[in-house]
Hints:
single chain, alpha/beta, 7% strand
Amino acid sequence: MASPPPITAAEAPDLDQVGAWLKKMIAERRFVELVVAILSLLTRLRDLNTELVRKLADLKKKRPPSETLERLERQLAKSNGKEPEKRKRTRSPRAGGRPPLPPHLPRVDIPNNVPADQRKCPICGAEMKTVRPSICETLSIVPAKLVVRRRIDETIACPNDDTIVSAPPPPAIVERGKLHDSIIVEALADKYLEHLPIERQCVDFARRGVEIAPQTLGRSVMAAIDVLEPIAKLIREQTRGPGLLATDASGIPILDPKATMGIRTGSMWCWTNARWVTFSYSPVGDSDSVRRFLGADLARTVQCDGTNIMTFVERAGGKRPGCWSHGRRRVVSAAKLGDKIALEGVRLMARLFAIEKASALAGENAEQRRARRDAESRPLIEELRAWIEDKRATTPPKTPLGRGLNYLYRQWRRLVLFLDDGNIELTNNRRERELRRLVLGRKNWLFTWLDDGGDRTAAILTVIATCIAHDVNPRAYLHIVTKLIVNGWPKSKLRDLLPDRILATNPDVYVGEEREAALPDAPAALLLGA
C-alpha cells in the first residue's frame, strides 16, 4: 500500500490545517486512512525528536567536541550500550623519574643543616663530619611588591644672574603620569596574555591598598600599544612577504554609541606566514578587507576555509588550498548521530591525518613531505574520492551526511592542492588556534572601544602571537622592547627589535628547547639597559 500524503510539514506543523483535515476525515468516515496518516506523522515527529535529543546531548557535553577517530568510536560504543575496550597504558621513556627544572633559572641555595642534638654519633659519641650534601630542588616564586619610585629632579641656578635649569624628566610611556612604565607593561601583558580586564586589575590593586581608576590604567595601556605599533607594522610586512599565506577570521564586539544596541561586530583576520603572525581588524568582514591586507599582489597561494570571500584570489590567478578539518567536521557530526556510513568516511580521513602526523614526527622538510604525500596520500585521496561519489548518489542532500559530502565535493579541487606542494598544510587549524587568543580575551573584556580599539587589539595580538611563534617570552619581550623604544631607539633600526633578532642579546627571553642553537646574531646595543 502506498504511503499516504503528508497532513502537514513535520518540521513546522500547521495545527489549523491538521484540525481541518481531521474533521474532514471523520465526516467522510475514512477512519483507516485517518489512523494510518496520524501514525505516519507521529513516526516522523518521533524521528525528528530523537535527532534533536542527540544533537542537544552533544552540545551539552562538558568537554569540547573531539573529531579524532578513537574518541568518536568510544563515544558511539558507549551510546549503543557497549562497554568500550580499555587501552593498556604504556609507560613513557621519562616515566621513571621526575624531569629536572629548567637550568637557566637562577638558583638560591638554602642551607638545611643537621640539628645540633643529632650531630654526635649515637654509638661512640664522636662528633660527626659532613660527608656530602643532598640537593633537592623545588620551584618557587618571589611575590610581586608595589613600590613608589621617587625621582628627585635637581634644579641648579647661576650665582651671578637669575638663570635656573632643572633636570629634564626621563622619557616615559605616559608623560607626567603617575604609573611607571613597568606597571603599564604588566597591565598590558595581563590583559592580552592572561585575558584579565582592566577593571579586574584595578580591583586587584585596590586589595593591595592602591586605588587606580580604570580609565587611567586603560589609557596608559592604550598608549603602550601605540608605542609598539611600529613593531606590529614591521611584522605585518614580514607576514605579507614571500611564502605560504593562510588566514581565518572571527568576530570582535565593538562598543559604539552610534550603533543600534550600542554594540556592533567587527571582523578580526589572522594571517600567518611561517613564524610570522599578523592580526588585521576590519569593521566589515568582506573581501575588501582581505584585499587591503594583500595589496596589489593577489595572485598568490592563500590557505583558508571554504568561504566565498576569498574566491577573488583564484580569479586573480592565485590558489586557495582548502582545510581538511572543515571537511572532516561535517562528516564527524553525522557519525555522532549514529550514521555508520559517515563513520566509514571518518576512518578514511583518519588515515590521511595519520600520514601527516608521521611526517611531522619525522621532521621532514617540504620536499620530503611532498614525496610522502605522493606515495601514501595520493592513493588514499583517490579512494576517498570514489567513496564520496558513491555515497552522494544515495544520500539525501539535506541530511547531516549529505551536507558533509556536498562540502567535500564542492571544495575538492582546493582540498587536493596539498598533494603538489609540501609547504601547504593539511588543515587550517593553526589559524584557529591563533584566534583563540582573541576569543578567550573577548569572553573576559567583552568588547573594545570603536574601530581604533579594534586596530590596537590587532596590533598587540600581532606582537604577542609572533613572539610565541618564535619561542620568545612575550611578557619579557614587551618590557625590553617598550623600554628601548621609549628611550629613543632609532627608527631606522626598528627591525633589530623584531622577535627573531632580540634573542641574541637577551637569551633569557627564549623559551624553546635548544637555547644555544636558536640564538641569532644581533647588535650589542640591544642589551637590556643599553
